[in-house]
Specification:
Blueprint lengths: L1 H20 L21 E5 L4 H7 L3 E5 L2 H10 L4 E5 H17 L5 E5 L6 E8 L2 H17 L1 H11 L19 E6 L8 E2 L5 E2 L1 H13 L2 E6 L5 H6 L5 E7 L2 H4 L3 E2 L4 E10 L9 H17 L4 H33 L4 H15 L3 H12 L7 H26 L3 H9 L4 H31 L11 H12 L4 H33 L1
Parallel strand pairs: 1-2, 1-3, 6-9, 6-10
Antiparallel strand pairs: 3-12, 4-12, 5-10, 5-11, 5-12, 7-8
Helix pairs in contact: 11-12, 11-14, 11-17, 12-14, 13-14, 14-16, 15-16, 16-18, 17-18
């Protein structure tokens, strides 16, 4: 089994190398002196839930939705789409950052094509469902503008290209008035992005930290997908949401916006085809070296991976433990002679098995525990416990049903009670036969926890996504996270295999 998994890793790395060695360019190639009108009928990437889709349609292009900018920009570089639409200031910072890496790799560069202001410009603001906090923010923001501090902040982030490693100023905050919970999406340089040691920086972050100091409330950031920001705010789990959220009438139906904190136009990030791509073994090795430096070493990003792995294992282990206990109870129901009780057990298993795990997680988070202050990790454990319980119940029932009834009858004939015959005869054999399926179920559980990022939990997968949102490296974080999952599941399989061997050796004595 281990050799097979090593072969999988080898084939995966080899396929990446072969892939990067081939000519790309399914979409039309970008040439000099292009403007936005040349993208009519072309496929343009946009972030799911953003306003870029409307702008894309307005210029006659075909929108292609992505959950994050990194994936879309990578498809631009691979030639799968003609461009990726973002805000103008974000596009400039992204291209500046990426072209530094492209120069080191002697790779193709990317450029920015602005969308004219008269075609699209919109205010960007924060969101909340609390009118009082919106009023307080607007008063605070007016003071920034009046004092000239706002212009200083905007010059730092928008007029000059910022040094994204420069720490934010210190804003004294006693925290006497509690915590200010802010929902963010870190895929929005220079508004919001991940910084050193799992912290956040950017224009919106600086304003929010200043606002927290203004209220004497400690700011707590919750990072999530952009499409989850408004539902998270509506559920009341955060006081405000910030990123580069465009103010629209449709969004105003669900949340209250602050006054605009910035006005921006859109732009298209495109591939500069004047420079030939460099695909070779040496460039692949350089890519590995630079990727390790950028994704793991810089800003101690490896710590995010370690923290994410801890969260993944906490959710997995507790869900498996509680799910085993709960599943044993459901199995008890399935084994009862009473039809109604048996039907309830079957109904539960059918309901859980027929519901996609991501949907079950969302229902648990937004509906069952919506508006509560129960921690996200606890809610995730509850959701996965329900899933594991159904799985364990069916595994145990299947194992129990395979035990020969003759052995049970023999135990009863020598005076064993029903309970004692179950504990002494049925259960030991059933557990031994259930372990292989139980092992597989646990491995599937570990992999299934990758979806907890949907409810703002920074697990292993989400840590990789945050790193991608900062480095815009679409490959390395995914491959590295996949390798960790593969290592964890392999270790689990080996441990369970050791357990099975021990059980078999004892049974042979």
């Amino acid at each position: 089994m281990i050799n097979n998994k090593i072969s999988v890793i080898y084939c995966l790395i080899l396929s990446i190398f072969i892939f990067t060695s081939c000519d790309k360019g399914k979409e039309n190639k970008i040439t000099e002196n292009m403007n936005y009108t040349d993208f009519k009928g072309q496929r343009i990437g946009v972030v799911t839930g953003s306003l870029m889709e409307g702008t894309t349609l307005r210029i006659g292009s075909i929108p292609v939705a992505y959950n994050d900018s990194a994936s879309g920009i990578e498809d631009v570089k691979q030639g799968r789409i003609s461009g990726f639409m973002h805000t103008l200031v974000a596009s400039k910072v992204i291209t500046e950052e990426l072209n530094k890496v492209n120069n080191r790799l002697a790779s193709q560069s990317i450029e920015v094509i602005p969308i004219p202001k008269e075609l699209y410009i919109i205010g960007i603001g924060g969101i909340s469902i609390n009118q009082n906090i919106i009023t307080q923010f607007n008063e605070f923001f007016d003071n920034l503008r009046t004092d000239g501090v706002l212009q200083e902040i905007q010059d730092r982030w928008f007029t000059n290209f910022p040094d994204l490693k420069t720490p934010l100023p210190n804003f004294p905050n006693s925290g006497a008035n509690g915590v200010l919970r802010i929902a963010i999406n870190s895929d929005a340089m220079p508004f919001v992005f991940s910084a050193e040691n799992n912290t956040y920086s950017g224009y919106s972050i600086e304003i929010v930290l200043r606002f927290g100091a203004y209220l004497n409330r400690v700011v707590e950031f919750i990072d999530m997908d952009f499409s989850a920001l408004i539902p998270y705010i509506v559920s009341g789990r955060a006081d405000m949401g910030f990123q580069a959220i465009g103010i629209t009438e449709e969004r105003k139906r669900n949340v209250i916006f602050t006054d605009p904190i910035w006005e921006d136009q859109h732009a298209i990030i495109v591939l500069n085809n004047n420079k030939e791509a460099n695909y070779s073994l040496s460039s692949f090795i350089s890519w590995i070296e630079i990727s390790i430096e950028r994704n793991l070493i810089t800003d101690n990003r490896y710590k995010m991976i370690i923290d994410g792995l801890k969260v993944t294992m906490i959710i997995s282990l507790f869900s498996q433990l509680l799910g085993t206990i709960f599943g044993s109870f459901i199995c008890y129901l399935l084994e009862r002679k009473n039809r109604l009780v048996r039907w309830l057990g079957k109904f539960y298993c059918g309901l859980i098995n027929g519901t996609p795990m991501v949907v079950l997680l969302m229902i648990t988070y937004y509906i069952i525990f919506g508006g509560t202050r129960i921690s996200n990790i606890t809610i995730a454990i509850m959701a996965f416990t329900m899933m594991t319980g159904a799985s364990v119940a069916q595994i145990l029932k299947g194992a129990i049903d395979t035990v020969d009834t003759v052995e049970i009858e023999a135990a009863r004939s020598i005076g064993y009670s029903a309970l004692k015959s179950f504990l002494k005869v049925t259960l030991p054999q059933a557990v031994k036969r259930a372990v292989p399926s139980y092992t597989k179920a646990f491995v599937e559980l570990v992999k299934a926890t990758a979806i907890v990022g949907f409810i703002a939990i920074q697990d292993l997968t989400r840590a990789g996504d945050i790193i991608r949102s900062r480095t815009y490296d679409a490959y390395f974080p995914i491959l590295f996270i996949a390798l960790i999952y593969l290592s964890v599941t392999t270790i689990c399989v080996l441990l369970f295999k050791y357990l099975i061997d021990k059980m078999n050796s004892r049974g042979a004595k």
